[in-house]
Design goal:
single chain; alpha+beta; Heat Shock Protein 90; Ribosomal Protein S5, domain 2; Rossmann fold; 4 domains; 8-stranded mixed sheet; 5-stranded mixed sheet; about 35% helix; binds 3-[3-(1H-pyrrolo[2,3-b]pyridin-5-yl)phenyl]propanoic acid
């Protein structure tokens, strides 16, 4: 897609803005780059690279190269037009290069009202980078020559812009070293930058971003000289394919369309790529002027409304929904959807603390009307894909109704109602009606479940034995998940709903505790259970209601005395600390412990250890499962070969 716009250098009177010096930036850096921590530090790089991206969007640059150096400095070079070198209209004595680097531009944008689609968080301009640098060197190739200027701490010019050798090339090179007096630590994180550059490359087709890490090249122990090249021939279609790479797409072609509208000097454009996969996740990524709008906004609202409306309309036209059927909800149509919504605007208005939400009201209607028209057209032209998509929406709706029914059934049963219909037969419930004091143990295996039943405090502790391994949640929609007997019994026992319907206040227990063997198989089932809870009962995890029990691996007897150790290390500690003749035994599984041992070591609130699971840990489990059990073989192979033997990843 091409975005036509007025070039930045087109200075008209009204675009001349009030300029001021750099002092305010050093006084309050947070105002300009968000923070002086690692995020602010990375922001400096984005600020420069975004200017190169603008040159690419305007049709001039095709490439930018970013290099990290040992001394904390960064080198960014592009082949755009180069910053103008002639006198600045407002400061006839000074080159435009120097003004751009030493004056703060009102509204943060170069040329004020002039057209500038900026990628930066606040679009603050490269003078902010100069202000927060210890040293900066700029080299501009333009008008047949190279021009160079250097700046000291805080962006103070060390001399005027000087003409250098002749060249036919054009472009801008900036080499800057963030000022250690400003930043908490000058230590760039390669993966953070790499992710951003990859994303940028997807959003700016045919723009090449070379990223090289030359830190520690001299150190033979360190991995130096790392380099990647990011370039996306098919833009956001490639983006969606990459996002779906470890999943199975439900239809072959990636949906792709775009639209534009101009209103006076305002231009809006939209590009969408989308493809459904066989997982439960809803993964809509939105961008405004190549910046990720993590918190959505009017463009996402317009997209969601049009998506739901269009799919309902087409489903009726194709007879997938009859007039008497309930419409698909937004959740139904977004189940398994991976989409990228990229909007470009001349006058974006961002909202909120992080500026990660779009506020322009006119964008909603624009996006809505483009999606209504273009998506309808695409679906009509791709009947086979459309059938697969509509079937998916219909299954999602059916599953949602089934889940709600199950929850309503469970809701009507108090804990004291016992094993009425609705609660799973295998559940051995507790008696306490005060839910906050109760605990549900999800126990791997029938025999371990049996021990746990005898060991428990029957007033507060309930046991749900799970047979063998849980289904492979990775490849599962809500509909398929609910067909699995283990999933259905967990959902019924928890009673708080499943999927988008979860209501944690309905959770039938205070704590949900995963109890499995301390070995590799136990860790496997724990990972699967966490993934299941993370995907289908997210609020239960995020509200801190999920725990992992820590059964011991060893028992050591010193005469009549029994002590336990959870790891090899703890065992050695114990043996070193005590006198007497130890008898060490290793538990192969929970089933080997008698009820008394299990109570003492793992279940008794007074003596046990529990680890509360955070969303981050559950998300990590989810990632491991995606890689190990996703339906696409390649990433799994790669992951296993990279991490083979590294039990850390499974040991959650
Ligand atoms: C001001 C005006 C023009 C381009 C730029 C700045 C510019 C800045 C950076 C920073 C890194 N790379 C850059 N490339 C360009 C417009 C130039 C014109 O009208 O010819």
């Amino acid at each position: 897609m091409s975005t036509r716009r007025r070039p930045k250098g087109d200075y008209s009177e009204e675009s001349i803005s009030v300029l001021e010096g750099l002092e305010p930036v050093r006084q309050r850096p947070g105002m300009y780059i968000g923070s002086t921590g690692v995020d602010g530090l990375h922001h400096l790089v984005y600020e420069i690279v975004d200017n190169s991206v603008d040159e690419a969007l305007a049709g001039y640059a095709t490439k930018v190269e970013v290099v990290l150096h040992d001394d904390g400095s960064v080198h960014v070079t592009d082949n755009g037009r180069g910053i103008p070198v002639g006198p600045h209209p407002q400061y006839p004595e000074t080159s435009t290069v120097e003004v751009v680097l030493t004056k703060l531009h009102a509204g943060g944008k170069f040329g004020g009202g002039g057209y500038h689609v900026s990628g930066g968080l606040h679009g603050v301009g490269i003078s902010v980078v100069n202000a927060l640098s210890e040293h900066l060197e700029i080299e501009v190739c333009r008008d047949g020559n190279e021009y160079v200027q250097t700046f000291g701490q805080g962006g103070v010019p060390e001399g005027p812009l000087r003409k250098g050798r002749k060249t036919k090339a054009t472009g801008t090179t900036i080499h800057f070293k963030p000022d250690p007096a400003i930043f908490e630590e000058v230590d760039f994180d390669r993966p953070t930058l790499a992710k951003r550059f990859q994303e940028t490359a997807f959003l700016v087709p045919n723009f090449t971003i070379v990223f090289r890490d030359e830190r520690n090249v001299a150190d033979p122990g360190a991995e130096g000289g790392w380099e990647r090249e990011y370039r996306a021939k098919h833009g956001i279609v490639d983006f969606v394919e990459a996002l779906n790479a470890s999943r199975t797409a439900l239809h072959r072609r990636v949906i792709h369309f775009s639209g534009e509208r101009t209103e006076g000097d305002r231009l809006m454009s939209l590009e969408v790529a989308a493809q459904w996969n066989d997982t439960y996740a809803d993964s809509v990524h939105s961008f405004v002027n190549v910046v990720n709008t993590r918190h959505g906004g009017t463009h996402e609202e317009g997209f969601r409304m049009a998506l739901t409306g269009t799919l309902n309309k087409i489903a009726k036209e194709m007879g997938v929904l009859r007039e008497s059927d309930e419409n698909f909800t937004g959740d139904d149509v977004r189940e398994g959807l991976t989409a990228v919504v990229s909007v470009k605007l001349t006058h974006p208005q961002f909202e909120g603390q992080t500026k990660a939400k779009l506020g322009n009201t006119e964008v909603k209607g624009f996006v809505r009307s483009v999606v209504n028209d273009e998506l309808s057209l695409w679906l009509k032209q791709h009947k086979a894909d459309t059938k697969a998509i509509l079937k998916r929406c219909k299954d999602a709706g059916n599953a949602r109704r089934a889940a709600r029914k199950a929850r309503d059934l469970a809701r009507r049963k108090g804990v004291l109602d016992g094993a009425d219909a609705g609660l799973p037969g295998k559940l051995v419930d507790c008696q306490n009606a005060d839910r906050s004091e109760t605990e549900l143990f999800l126990v791997e295996g029938d025999s371990a479940g049996g021990s746990a039943v005898s060991a428990r405090d029957r007033f507060t502790q309930a046991i749900l034995p799970l047979r063998g391994k849980l289904l492979n949640v990775e490849r599962t929609s809500l509909a398929r998940a609910l067909e699995n007997a283990e999933v259905a019994s967990i959902a019924a026992a928890l009673g708080c709903g499943i999927g988008h319907d979860v209501d944690v206040t309905e959770l039938r227990y205070g704590k949900v505790i995963l109890l499995s063997d301390a070995d590799v198989d136990g860790s496997h089932i724990r990972t699967l259970l966490l993934t299941f809870l993370f995907r289908f009962m997210t609020p239960v995890v995020s509200e801190g209601r999920v725990y992992v029990a820590q059964p011991p691996l060893y028992q050591v007897r010193f005469g009549q005395d029994r002590v336990y150790a959870a790891s090899e290390q703890e065992l050695h500690g114990l043996l070193d600390a005590r006198n007497g003749k130890p008898v060490v035994s290793r538990f192969k599984g929970l089933g080997e412990m008698n009820a008394e041992q299990l109570w003492e070591t793992t279940m008794n609130p007074a003596t046990r250890r529990l680890v509360r699971i955070t969303v981050e840990e559950a998300a990590l489990a989810d990632e491991v499962v995606s890689k190990l059990m996703g339906s696409v073989v390649e990433p799994r192979k790669e992951w296993i070969s990279q991490n083979a033997g590294d039990a850390r990843f499974l040991d959650i």
